[in-house]
TrEMBL record:
Residues 3-249 form the NAD-dependent epimerase/dehydratase domain. GO terms for biological process: galactose catabolic process via UDP-galactose, Leloir pathway. It comes from Labedella endophytica. SUPFAM superfamilies: NAD(P)-binding Rossmann-fold domains (SSF51735). This is UDP-glucose 4-epimerase.
Length: 320
């Protein structure tokens, strides 16, 4: 049983690949290395460098391997930047997903786990998001993730594709010092880079309608996210009942200000954050219930905030 992992050389994807290996499930990684790293993939891991926009390449990969299913993580994942680059975002997230689903259908591969996002909710009108909460994305990124879910739904109706989409927001931490978040837009890498360079970390917006004025999010450890992907794939392979969507949420929100305080505490580097204007596309609060995923995917928060920060800080200093 082998699974194709798109985006498997990225921060989240590489953790998923290792979680699959720990579960004894073989994988093939497909990644264009636009944001991933070849060094995140072991030398003995089957790896194909390429883009999902390359249809002949997709057909070749599906013909060379016998896949039990696909975990689709590849994509352009920056909500704020997507406002500036909508066409690029749609191409990378919608056209690419359409190509992948078409190639999978041609090869008779009928299982997929989709890496979606809590960005599909926009700014919810409820304190705790569930899978039944209305989807109102506020960025091209969120829109493309919701369209990806629609594509899976419609393909499922048309062809019997078995699928599920995992919605999550801020993925942090590291399960290994050699795997770190290298995004130029995510909060932890930005904060750690500032500290390493002797600069003061920045908060984007302190005028949100939240208790301390900063954005409130679910912060979830990448290793917990990776395990949920494995459980979803196993459920699909075992032909067990599975929901079309799961929130991988903590049930508790953490503000950006609280993150800053935690970073100062864990790293032993006190600082007073610089305050900048809001970023476009950033909702004030998204906190999700993970009850449904706990029921079906053994989802739970296995790491504290300080453990998330500490493991991310260690990985950031490794120079991986």
């Amino acid at each position: 049983m082998t699974w194709l992992i798109t985006g498997g050389a990225g921060y989240i994807g590489a953790h998923v690949v290792r979680a699959f290996a720990a579960a004894g499930i073989a994988t093939v990684v497909l990644d264009d290395l636009s944001s991933g790293h070849r060094s995140f993939i072991s030398d003995d891991q089957d790896f194909v460098e390429g883009t999902l926009l390359d249809v002949p390449l997709l057909d070749r990969v599906f013909s060379e391997y016998r896949f039990a299913g696909v975990v689709h993580i590849a994509g352009y994942k920056y909500a704020g930047e997507s406002v500036k680059k909508p066409i690029h975002t749609y191409e990378q997230n919608v056209t690419a997903t359409t190509n992948l689903l078409a190639a999978a259908e041609r090869a008779g591969v009928a299982r997929i786990v989709f890496s979606s996002s809590a960005a599909v909710y926009g700014t919810p009108d409820t304190d705790l998001v569930t899978e039944a909460t209305a989807t109102r994305p506020e960025s091209p990124y969120g829109e493309t993730k919701l369209i990806g879910e629609w594509l899976l739904r419609d393909q499922g109706r048309a062809t019997g594709l078995r699928h599920t989409s995992l919605r999550y927001f801020n993925v942090v931490g590291s399960a290994s010092p050699d795997l770190r978040d290298t995004s130029p837009h995510n909060l932890f890498p930005l904060v750690f880079a500032a500290l390493a360079e002797g600069r003061v970390p920045r908060i984007n917006g302190t005028d949100y309608p939240t208790p301390d004025g900063t954005c409130v999010r679910d912060y979830v450890h990448v290793a917990d996210i990776a395990e949920a992907h494995v459980r979803a794939a196993e459920r699909l392979t075992g032909d067990e009942d599975i929901e079309p969507v799961y929130n991988l949420g903590s049930g508790d929100g953490v503000s950006v200000r609280q993150i800053m305080d935690g970073v100062a505490r864990v790293t032993g580097t006190p600082f007073d954050p610089e305050i900048s204007p809001r970023r476009p596309g950033d909702p004030a609060r998204i906190v999700a219930s993970g009850e449904l995923a706990a029921r079906d995917l053994d989802w739970r928060m296995r790491h504290s905030l300080d453990e998330m920060i500490g493991s991310a800080w260690e990985a950031s200093r490794s120079g991986a």
